[in-house]
Automatic annotation (TrEMBL):
SUPFAM superfamilies: LuxS/MPP-like metallohydrolase (SSF63411). This is M16 family metallopeptidase. Residues 217-389, 676-853 form the Peptidase M16 C-terminal domain. Residues 57-192, 525-645 form the Peptidase M16 N-terminal domain. The keyword NADP does not apply. InterPro entries: Metalloenz_LuxS/M16, MPP/UQCRC_Complex, Pept_M16_N, Peptidase_M16_C. The keyword Membrane does not apply. The lineage of its organism: Bacteria, Pseudomonadati, Acidobacteriota, Terriglobia, Terriglobales. It comes from Granulicella cerasi.
Length: 951
């Protein structure tokens, strides 16, 4: 469950229905090709109807996969809150998962997880709150039972104990944000853009004081006012029968009474007529300047022009601000610009983080000079074309998913929420296509000016947060709760206590790629999916961050980052422009065992993107200028690791476990190793580690086997590099009796808690058993660790466990962000769950739930061409059989309770863990010592013991 501000990216990820025949292949080669012609899009095929109680239902049938997305939007958010009651909508988002009358306390998410759901969450934005899950299609009735029960029968299961717990959880979520670098400055920006009584003032989560002041009577009143069928819209997309669905909707939602009318919100946002400024201190390494403006509301004509302008100004890779500050003058570590268009008004901001030694007063004049010039000239035609292409591609890419952010169901609901028309897509696309250079210039000139701006400087210093004490334990103890329904109505609804039984198990076929090899030794893997005109191409090589010596730590990652910057014939600006005019990008990634270069594009851009992709792979520039710039950025990134307690813990923990080996070194290296790197080492690493003999070209999506063969041969058939270096293998972990390593972060609002221990390799035959075991221990929301630390004790926003499996070993890890004063008890509880697991009984329900979840969620892992490509990359990197995923369900089914206990005894090592805590030493050290979890050793960011100064 999370809060979420609606962004331009979220809008751009919206899904649409597109006929593949509408996309004709481009004929010209890339860098010289004309931009593909505009594509006319049909509307999403949907049906809508309204139940007698006012619940609006929007449906879209799609039988491609045995999945169904259920997406319920309540038309309530901070927009509907009043001063002193901020955060209620978000608090309620959490309360809705606490259990309802017929489902049971804290059972909702556990039931959903065990049913094999994917894309499960609840989110709050300024204007709405939504709840969604993508389920196996045979579990549709289960989803409707769950959603209807918390809509109509939450009050009966809601008590003061659950409310107190979720106040703690929500405030932990807020602290989690406050612990992020620059979060305080971003919130200050909102405080200055809006007056205090405005719904958009502050933070979606609300203030600590308001959340803590929430009382059971307030919460019940809020639910009865806003969480009603007549204030909600339910979108369902996927594999279902419409007749049966309508019967189920009538059964589950029909009896819920209509609620009171929700009054419209008519708030006028006062304009900013003179620049406002503020300075905020935070425990950050580098200063940041944020500039915000009030901009057009969602789906207004000017909002589209403003979105295009912002992309050109600070959204593109080599935007105007990036070019001036990151590339040319190299004064900034990063530039980020974003546009949030909401119901009442929009708000836009650009943030620039300075490089070390650079003052904000040196950066700000340059920012305003760039903006002034941009306002006067507007974007170029190429910049407008690129922004439109990216928006269109994102919409179509979103079609691949039924649920989740930007999926089909989410899009239907979003259009309905803001325009009243689920079929708004044609108008949406037309409005974006109507943007011109002139309209984008006019929008920039009208809104993005110094006089209309709010400026916040975030500088290194003390982090000051407005926290408040917890409420007394007896809060609300004397409140008498009244059932909202009559006894007769409750009796009539007794049937709801019976959890729906799934219909016949869904049948699905997981991808088995077709594989062939080119004459140069390059493996090619192909998985066809012709529903949409989307193609994903990925080159995977068996050389990752482990393919180097310790003194060169950071070299492989820096090489892959530099790879996609430029080619021998295209500099960074030209390459970026060529990619963006197709609406796509070429990305490089690296893991411990493998490297990859990947891209996803609309099929009609094949003749543009494939030459670019091949150019990046075959002719990387590795220029001195790009190396110098990215090396500086890498060193600053390492320095900024201490801005975030969880990053600190995850950086130090593996080193304490594996020492000076590949598995123990951070992927971005150390200050010492990166400082010594030279530009000539990048192409040397690339050519000695990556070539056709240890690589695979993975092509997925709207491509036939014959087309894939032609593409592979045409673009990479001539690749003849012969890698000569092997991977540097890891040594065995440095196993010691469990102890606590403490990294001091003065003023941190939370502690980053992570336990590290020996793991196992991907090839281990125990892996399916371990995955089932870990699902129960800490691999799901309803796991033992999370239910203990979050739901029972309110110590954290979330805690989990997992296994990082590599080719030659692995790591077990568990933890989360913990409330500072709860660091020791949370660590004790987490360790208790790990220690007890091997000796405890795994119940039949836990085992069945874990196995069902692992099996039934598999189809959801292949909804997109990119996800399929990633799975196939893993098959190649770890030399797994091509039938690996097809055979996985049967391996999960074969796991027994004895298997779970056996792998827990074998692969969990509670007496050999390194417990890393990164937080405020003055507040957590003594309690950790008192907890007697093991020796407590204070270490630095290199994992070295801190030598205490003599007093």
């Amino acid at each position: 469950m999370s809060s979420k501000k609606s962004t331009l990216a979220a809008l751009a990820a919206a899904a649409v229905l597109v006929s593949p025949t509408l996309f004709a292949q481009a004929k010209k080669p890339v860098a010289k090709a004309a931009h593909a012609s505009a594509t006319a899009l049909p509307s999403i095929k949907y049906e809508t109807f309204t139940l007698p109680n006012g619940l609006k239902v929007i449906t879209h049938v799609d039988h491609r996969l045995p999945l169904v997305a259920v997406d319920l939007w309540y038309h309530v958010g901070p927009l509907n809150e009043r001063p002193g009651r901020t955060g209620f909508a978000h608090l309620f988002e959490h309360m809705m998962f606490e259990g309802s009358e017929h489902v049971g306390e804290k059972q909702h998410i556990k039931i959903v997880d065990e049913a094999g759901a994917t894309d499960v969450n609840g989110t709050t934005a300024w204007d709405r709150t939504n709840y969604f899950e993508t389920m196996p299609s045979n579990q549709l009735e289960l989803a409707l039972w769950l959603e209807s029960d918390r809509m109509g029968f939450l009050m009966e299961g809601l008590n003061r104990t659950l409310l107190a717990n979720q106040r703690d959880v929500v405030r932990n979520e807020r602290r989690q944000g406050e612990g992020q670098p620059y979060d305080l400055g971003e919130e200050q920006l909102m405080h200055m853009l809006f007056p205090k009584d405005h719904p958009y003032y502050g933070n979606v989560i609300g203030s600590h004081a308001d959340v803590e002041a929430a009382r059971i009577a307030d919460v019940r009143e809020f639910h009865q006012q806003f969480y009603t069928p007549n204030n909600a819209t339910l979108a369902i997309a996927g594999d279902f029968d419409m007749v049966k669905l309508k019967a189920l909707l009538t059964k589950y939602f029909g009896p819920i009474p209509k609620g009171p009318a929700v009054p419209p919100v008519n708030v006028q946002t006062p304009p900013i007529t003179a620049q406002k400024r503020a300075t905020v201190t935070d425990t950050v390494q580098l200063p940041m300047i944020s500039i915000g403006w009030l901009t057009p509301a969602a789906f207004t004509k000017d909002s589209y022009s403003l979105a295009v302008a912002i992309d050109a100004l600070g959204g593109a890779k080599v935007s105007r601000l990036d070019k001036a500050l990151v590339y040319d003058k190299q004064l900034a570590q990063r530039v980020t610009c974003g546009d949030d268009a909401e119901k009442l008004v929009g708000f836009t901001n650009c943030s620039v983080v300075a490089r070390p030694g650079v003052k904000l007063e040196d950066i700000e004049p340059i920012i305003w000079d760039v903006i002034k010039k941009f306002d006067a000239e507007g974007p170029t035609e190429a910049e407008v074309t690129a922004a439109k292409a990216k928006a269109l591609s994102s919409k179509i890419f979103g079609l691949q998913r039924l649920g989740g952010f930007g999926g089909v169901a989410d899009t239907l609901n979003r259009y309905n929420q803001y325009t009243g028309d689920p079929n708004y897509l044609p108008k949406d696309v037309a409005a974006m296509n109507a943007v011109t250079v002139a309209s984008a210039k006019a929008a920039a000139d009208q809104y993005l000016t110094p006089d209309h701006a709010v400026v916040v400087l975030t500088v290194p210093g003390k982090k000051v947060v407005d926290d408040v004490p917890r409420s007394p334990e007896n809060t609300d103890a004397d409140v008498k709760l009244t059932n909202p329904y009559t006894p007769e109505f409750e009796t009539a609804q007794e049937w709801r206590k019976s959890k729906p039984v799934a219909t016949a198990p869904v049948k699905f076929n997981l991808p088995v790629p077709k594989v062939f090899t080119l004459a140069n030794g390059l493996t090619v893997m192909v998985a066809e999916e012709h529903t949409l005109p989307i193609v994903s191409v990925s080159l995977a090589a068996r050389a990752g961050t482990g393919a180097t010596t310790v003194d060169k730590a950071g070299l492989p990652q820096l090489a892959m980052q530099t790879l996609t910057e430029a080619t021998a014939s295209l500099n960074v600006e030209q390459l970026s422009a060529a990619e963006e005019r197709t609406g796509s990008t070429i990305n490089a990634g690296i893991t411990m065992d493998g490297s990859n270069v990947s891209t996803t594009f609309l099929k009609n851009h094949t003749n543009e993107m494939m030459p670019l992709f091949a150019d990046v792979v075959l002719h990387p520039a590795f220029s001195q200028a790009d190396f110098d710039r990215l090396k500086k950025r890498a060193l600053v990134g390492i320095q900024q690791s201490s801005d975030n307690v969880m990053v600190m813990a995850q950086r130090v923990g593996p080193h304490l476990l594996y020492g000076d080996t590949a598995y123990g070194m951070p992927s971005n290296g150390t200050p010492t190793s990166v400082t010594k790197l030279t530009a000539d080492e990048l192409p040397k690493w690339y050519t000695t580690h990556i070539g056709p003999s240890n690589a695979a070209l993975v092509i997925t999506g709207d491509v036939t086997l014959e087309e894939a063969k032609k593409l592979a041969e045409q673009y990479l058939g001539g690749w003849n590099n012969k890698p000569s270096a092997g991977t540097v293998l890891a040594t065995q972990p440095n196993v010691k009796p469990t102890y606590v390593a403490l990294i001091d972060k003065p003023g941190a609002p939370q502690t980053g808690l992570m336990a590290f221990g020996p793991g196992l390799p991907v090839s281990s035959p125990d892996m399916p058993k371990v995955e089932v075991m870990n699902f129960i221990l800490g691999g799901s929301f309803g796991s033992r660790i999370n239910m203990n630390l979050r739901e029972q004790h309110g110590y954290t926003y979330g805690a989990s466990s997992g296994f990082r499996a590599y080719a030659d070993g692995g790591t077990f890890l568990a933890g989360g962000l913990i409330r500072t004063d709860a660091t020791a008890p949370a660590t004790t509880e987490m360790m208790g769950e790990i220690k007890r697991f091997a000796d405890s009984n795994v119940t039949d329900a836990e085992l069945k739930g874990a196995k069902d979840a692992r099996i039934q969620s598999l189809p959801g892992q292949f909804e997109t061409t990119g996800a399929t490509a990633a799975a196939l990359r893993g098959i190649f990197l770890f030399k797994l059989p091509v039938t690996y995923y097809a055979e996985l369900p049967e391996k999960y089914r074969a796991v027994t309770a004895d298997d779970v206990k056996a792998v827990a005894a074998k692969d969990l090592h509670p007496d050999q863990l390194v417990i890393v805590t990164a937080g405020d030493r003055s507040k957590i050290e003594q309690s950790l010592k008192d907890a007697k979890l093991g020796d407590v050793v204070v270490v630095d960011m290199m994992g070295q013991p801190v030598v205490e100064k003599k007093k």
